[in-house]
Structures are given as structure tokens and as C-alpha cells.
Amino acid sequence: MSEWLEKQLPKLVLAPSFVAILIFVYGFIGWTAWVSFTKSKLLPRYDIVGLIQYDRLFVSPRWDVAFSNLFIFGFLFIVISMLLGLLLAILLDQKIRTEGIIRTIYLYPMALSLIVTGTAWKWILNPGLGLEAMLRSWGWESFSFNWLVDPNMAIYTVVIAGVWQASGFVMALFLAGLRSVDDEIIKAAQVDGIPTWRIYLSIILPSMAAIFLSAFIVLAHLSIKSFDLVVALTGGGPGYATDLPATYMYTMAFSRGDIGQAASSAMIMMAVVFAIVVPYLYSELRAKND
Amino acid sequence: MSTILEIKNLHKDFGSLNILNSINVSIEEGDFLVLVGPSGCGKSTLLNCIAGLEPITSGAIAIDGRDMTTVSPKDRDIAMVFQSYALYPTMTVGQNITFGMKVRGIEKNEREEKLLKVAKQLQIESLINRRPGQLSGGQRQRVAMGRALVRDPKLFLFDEPLSNLDAKLRVEMRTEIKKLHQNLNASMVYVTHDQIEAMTLATKIVVMKGGIVQQIGTPSEIYNRPSNLFVADFMGSPAMNLIPAKVTNNGKGTKFTIARSHGEPLILFDDNITKLPENVVLGLRPEDIGDANLRKGDKLQISTCSVDVVEPAGADTYVLINLGGKEVTARLQAETAAQTGMEMAFTFNMDKVSYFNAKTGQRLN
Amino acid sequence: MTELNSKYADSGYIQKLILRSLLFLLLGIFAVYYLMPLFIMVTTSLKSLEEIRTGSLIDLPREVTFAAWKTAWSGACTGIQCEGLRPFFWNSVLLAVPAVIISTLIGALNGYVIAQWRFKGANLIFSLMLFGCFIPFQVVLLPMARVLGIINLAGSISGLVFVHVIYGIGFTTLFFRNYYVSIPVELVKAAKIDGANFFRIFISIFLPLSLPIIVVTVIWQFTQIWNDFLFGVSFSEAGTQPVTVALNNIVNSTTGVKEYNVDMAAAIIAALPTLLVYVVAGKYFIRGLTAGSVKG
């Protein structure tokens, strides 16, 4: 092989992937952005008309629900998953012999498709035959759990299913973080007479700031992408009560034939992700290159 | 005796940063060249350029008369031993040593033959089927050398090979390398930051600082006639004393006035030199300052100094005196009666002194 | 590691016992919380519809029947077809295997280049690829649908493989790059002097070292691709849908009686491969999850 070719080989090997990313990530984002400024309906049109799609988006009641659902769901999903994950991590940190098995049990939901998770919880929370019926048959006659079909409460069922799926993962992250604290610092604190709960609060938790951030980023990312879960669990319903931007976009794109709306909603999703992830990535890469 | 390595006017820039500047070095077959200097002086970079692992910005490198400007590392007929040994972790010792031959398409029988020969030479036959992870530091270093030896190259390159070993092992391996050099009459270029290694191993030393060659010479030349203040200070342990002095020419020679914190300045004469600038730095090695009661000689000049610190060190006693604002170390015999605080007569061997321009640092004699 | 009960080490064996029991109780409760859905899925799938209607959620089946499983596998309706999950299970296999292999291979080469053959702009390229991992895929759905149509891969499994490979490269490159970065540069130097070229060094030196990260990457990619729904539902048609799409069709089909036992059986069938992988190689799976997000 000629000298020059040898020298360029690394670049040549990386090139196809790089070109692919340029086209299929950045190029496509550009395309979607472009279309979001047009009057496209069933087919894309490329003459820019301005912010008309965004205007339509922001006055659409359905989008309103979807967008606010994103924050309701996102907030609850992230906070509860983190708290639960933290609690479980602290519990598991207590030198349990069967830790391996327990960890496997807590984590396996992450291996499931969100469709499977949605399907399972849809059945469990089934108003007539699921949890409600079971508790009633146990004697709790007045127990009612029809959240799944209640437009006001349906979004919370998505939270329940989501937390079930993801909290194990958060636990694994936090457990690793708890364990990365230097043993000697803890011993010194114990010798100093500091109570265990205080050790956790004042020494261990603060040192896990980076992991909290990682967990937050991953969970935030997951919640923005939540599509499968909603489709399987509620289908976006009742009505569009559990719509999220992801399902809104899909409906606009493939059921309603309104590509302009699909594009603009997708770009809004992109913007939210961008706002969260970019500062994080920037600081991470900076730290690594220092 | 042919010139095995010739480096002419080598420059290397990395972007806008200059790493190596005007390097000119050449060695004959059988030489042991050591590149020595503080961290960041460019010695490793120079070695990598010789190996062809780094490109050069301008200048030329020739190995055994062949110009290497367009030649890749594998065709330079060199072998290299790295600081971290760089053994292939998933291969056995035997596979590590024969990998290069395998790549070059050498027959299995020949590979085995050469492997055994080298293994015997380095006493690592019993390790041939082990993996690097199972070896000690010293054993790994031997395997790394085996990999180099089996190539039978024109030039051996060593990049700080002993830095990862503990002190005792380091001394052992140093001797091994020296023996290897003598037995094979091989040409070696060796990089280290340890000036003791440089002095003990080299036939020729290149002292570097900031990408520029400070001095090229034999160990003895470097030791006795350092070409500037940096070399004088860097090479030799304990370091050469560098004493500021004021010069007055007195007709038949030069008079040096060295200020002292209390009392009269110290006066020294040298009749063999004239035309020195007003401010010089006198370079005298500790062993050239002695106890006047124990050392005799008509070439020695005697003067009384006040003893600041006494450090007994077994066969010698190091005594610190204050001259010209500096702490000067004298290496006295263990029988000396020197005590802290006392005034004592010291001998100064002006035959061995080096003079440096106080401003430029350059050697004047 | 802190022991909750270290403080009570000498002040009472009983207190220690109580706290420890509390700990196990809590852990047990949560174990039930996580296992329950799986338990319910399995038991429901083994009941007859009659039992489901008259019994309660967590009852064990009075009469175990595998009829639901048979239906789920070969008879359930996924739209107009009623062939069960079987053909779609096979679709997922045809999709996942090539996609995992190709994306892993490309990621390995990319990671190798970025980690060991630094050149100007390599880090920028890496950053751009890394960012690509984070985008919500909704933003590429529309253009990708058009492109697939143009290159004649619309609605085909090959098209899905293509999509998954493209969007998997970011992660696989990340995994390999982080792994290869810790391999000393001098190894490559020694190999260069030994005469090995770019590919020889990769094959003889890096690949043999890569088993741990290959396992992590393969498990991660397989899980992601097998479990994917968004790409599956957007880019496939009736015959080429992966198992997740088929499952959703079965469960959300509006025709006929809702057969909950079939739904559950179908869900388990769809979940089995990744669940199996998790149980067998879970350690590596966790490593993959945490490596990707902690970005160590």
C-alpha cells in the first residue's frame, strides 16, 4: 500500500461514519427544521413561509396538553426515579449477601421493551379486571383506581410504569457512586462519632454530584423520547390526555398527514433536548480534554 | 568505523510551537549515545524522530548513510525499547518477540531459532510461554529487549527504559544494558532524564534543554568541561558549585574576588587565563574543594572559610560553606576535623575550575 | 461502605437484629414491587379467559392452560393477518443480528481510529457523533422515511437494519473509544516498528484485547434494537414489522374480544430474548448502561 494511503487510512476509515452522521443526523435535522418553516401538509413543500407552523402548534389545545404533560411526566418521573433509586442504592449498600440477586431483580425491567412494560401495566391498572377489581374483591369495596381511563389522572399511570422501568437503573448508577467514595473518609467520620445518617447526608451524597447529574441527564433524555410507553399503555388517551410531544409528532406525521406540524413539534423536542444536553456534554468534554 | 547515525539541522515544530531546534549529532558504529535533559527538553521527541514515529519539519536524518526522510519506521532497520515495555498483552513472550518477524513473513523455523538464541542470551527461556501480565517488571524489560535484539538492527533506540523500575533493579538492568552493548558492539541511542545513567552508560552524551542541544561530548568532557551553566549544574551529583565572582586583571593573570556574608571576600588567582569579563561564575566540583589539613599540593590555593553545615556520608563528609551568596559544597575526606561554625582552611583546585560568563552562561575557558 | 447498624455494634444484639430485619423487609417489599408485574404476566397468560374474568389479578391459575401461548405465537391477529407473533419474531431476528454485528464492527474501527490515531479534527468528529446519540429520533423520522423511499428500502427489513446501524454508530463508537483510550500509545508504536500496518495492529493487538467491550456493546445494541418501537413502527409495513410492533398491534387491536391472556403471553414472548440476555450476561449489561451515562 502506498505511503500516502497508509497515512490517510485512519481518516478514510472514519470518513464513512462521519459523512453518515453529517447527513443522517445534522442534515436531517436541517431538513426537518426547514420543513417546519413551510406550509407542508401531506407532502413537503420547500418554500419558507415563516413561523406559521409554530403559531399553529402553540395554539393547538392538543399540543398544549402534550407539552404540559412532558413537564408533569418528566418532573415526576425524574424525581421519583431518583429518590427511589437513591433509597434502594442506600439499602443495597448495607453489605447484603444476596446483593447480586436483588440487584438483578431490581434492574431487569430495564431490559424490557417499553411496549412490554406498557402492556403489562395496562393490564395491571385495568379498571375492571386489574388492581381495582382485585382490591375490591378483597373487601375494599370502595377502592377505585380508574386512572387509566380518567383524562385527568391518566398521565400519572405513565409515571408509575416509567418509574417501575427506570428506577432500577438509577439505583445501579447510584450504587456505583456510593461505592466510589473513599472508605477511609467514612472510617474517619465514624471514628469522629458522626452518626451514619449524617455521614450519608454530609459526606457521601455531596460527593455524588456528578452521578446525580448523569442520572438526571439520562432520565430527562428518556422522558423526552417516551413514545413506546405511551403508545402501549394508553395509546395517547383517553382522547389525547396522555399525549406527549413524541406521540403528537407521530400522529401528525403518519396519521394526520400534517408534516409541517410534525416537523415543528419535532424541532421543539429537539430544542428541549438541546437545552439540557449541550451544556452537559460541553462541560464533560472540556473536563476530559484538560 | 562508519557513521551509523547522522542528524543534520533538524527542526521540529508542532503547530506554532518549536520543539526541536537546529539539532546536529552524529555517531559512529558501536557508539552509545545518550540524550539527556530535564522533562520537556525534547529528547523523547528526538528519539521518535530518529525512529520515524514523528515527522520532522526540516533537516535530515541518515542511518548508515541512507536518508530516512521518506522511510517508515519498519524499514529503518531499527529496534526500540519503551519505558512501559509496550509488550503485546494478549500474546505470549515468544509471540511478542517473534511478532515482527511474523509480519515480515519469516519462516516459522527461522523465527523459532532466533527466538531461542535471544531467549538464551537474556536468560528468559523459561518465560517463553508466559503472558506479560504474569511477569515481573525486570522480566518484562528483558522481553522488551529480546524483541529488539531479535531484529538485529543497525540501531537500538531506548526511551527511558529503566524509569519504571525500582532503584535496585534499575542499577542491575543498567549494568545489563552496558554488558549488552559491549558484547554486541551495537550502536545505541538512549534517552534518560537521569544523569547518572547518562554518565555510566554513554560513550557520547547530548545534553538538551528546551529543544536545543547544550553540549555534545564524552562523559568526561561533559563532566570536566561543561559548556555552559546549565550543563554544569545538571550533570554530576552532587552538582557543580557555581560561585559568582568579580574579576580584576593584575598583569600576569586574573584575580577573583568572591564576596562573603561576613568577613573579607575570598581571593583566588589564576595565572593561566586573561581577558575575562568583569562578572564571571566560577565552576568547581565539590571534590575540587578540600580540607587543607588533609590535602597537600602546590597547585592548590588555600583560603580560610567558615563552615556552615557538616554532613557525614560514610566515606566522605560534605561540608557547606557560604561563598558569593551561594551554599557551596565541599567534599572532604571522612577524617576531616571540620565542625559547624569553625573557621577552617580549604584548598581550591584552580586547575579544574570552569569559568562562565555571568550574563550568558557560556563557558569562557 | 457504611453499615446502617455500625453505631449499634455493641449496644444491643437485639437492636441490630431489628434493624437488619427492617432492612430485609424493605428490600423484600421492593423485590415484590419489581417482580409483581412479571408474575402477573405469567399467571395471566396461563389462565383461561373465564378465569380471568371471574378471578382476581394475582390469583394463581386454577387450571393451567397453554392455549393463550399457542394463540400468541401462531394465531393472534396483528391487523389483517392472524399468524401470531411467529413471523414477526423472525423479522426481529433478521433485523437485530445484522444490525448488531455491523454497528459493533463499525464502532470498533471508529473507536480505534479516534483513540489511537489522533489527527486534527478527530475530537471534533467524535463530539459530533456523540451529540448524535442524544437527539430525539422524532426529528429524523420524516426525512428518513423519504430517503428510504428514494433508495427503495422503504418498508423493508434491510431498510430497518440500515436505520439502526446509522443511529447505533454513535453509541458503539463511544463504547469502543472509551475502552481503547486506556490502551497505551506505545503499544502501537512498538507494533509500527515491528512492521504492522493499520489493520494488522487492529486485528492482532486490539481485537484480542476487546472481548469485554465487545460483549458490552453487543448486549447494549441487541437490547436497544430488539426493544425498539419507534423506528419499527415508522419504517416497516405489514409483513416486515418487528416483534414489538406486532405485540402492540395484538394488544391494541380493536377487533374481537380482548384476550388478556394472549396479550400477556405475547408480551412475554416478545420480552424473552432480551430478558434471557440480561439474566445470562447481566453484569456486562449493567456495565454498558453505566459506562454510557457516567462517561468515565
What does it look like?
The complex is a heterotrimer of chains A (290), B (365) and C (296). Chain A contains 13 helices and no strands. By secondary structure, chain A is mainly alpha-helical. The longest helix of chain A is centred in the first third of the chain and has 33 residues. The model of chain A has no long low-confidence stretch (mean pLDDT 85). Chain B has 365 residues and is α+β, with helices and mostly antiparallel strands. Chain B has two domains: 232 residues, 3-Layer(aba) Sandwich (Rossmann fold); 117 residues, OB fold (Dihydrolipoamide Acetyltransferase, E2P) (Beta Barrel), CATH 2.40.50.140. In chain B, the strands form four sheets. A six-stranded mixed β-sheet of chain B has the order 6-7-8-3-9-10, sandwiched between helices. A five-stranded antiparallel β-sheet of chain B has the order 13-12-11-14-20. Chain B is elongated and about 80 Å long. By secondary structure, chain C is mainly α. Chain C folds into two domains: 60 residues, no CATH class; 209 residues, MetI-like fold, CATH 1.10.3720. Chain C is built from 13 helices and no strands. In chain C, helix 1 crosses helix 13, helix 3 packs across helix 13 and helix 12 crosses helix 13. The longest helix of chain C is centred in the C-terminal third of the chain and has 35 residues. The two termini of chain C are 21 Å apart. In chain C, 50% of the residues are buried. The chains are: A mainly alpha (290), B alpha+beta (365), C mainly alpha (296). At the A-C interface, helix 1, helix 3, helix 4, helix 5 and helix 6 of A face helix 1, helix 4, helix 5, helix 6 and helix 7 of C.
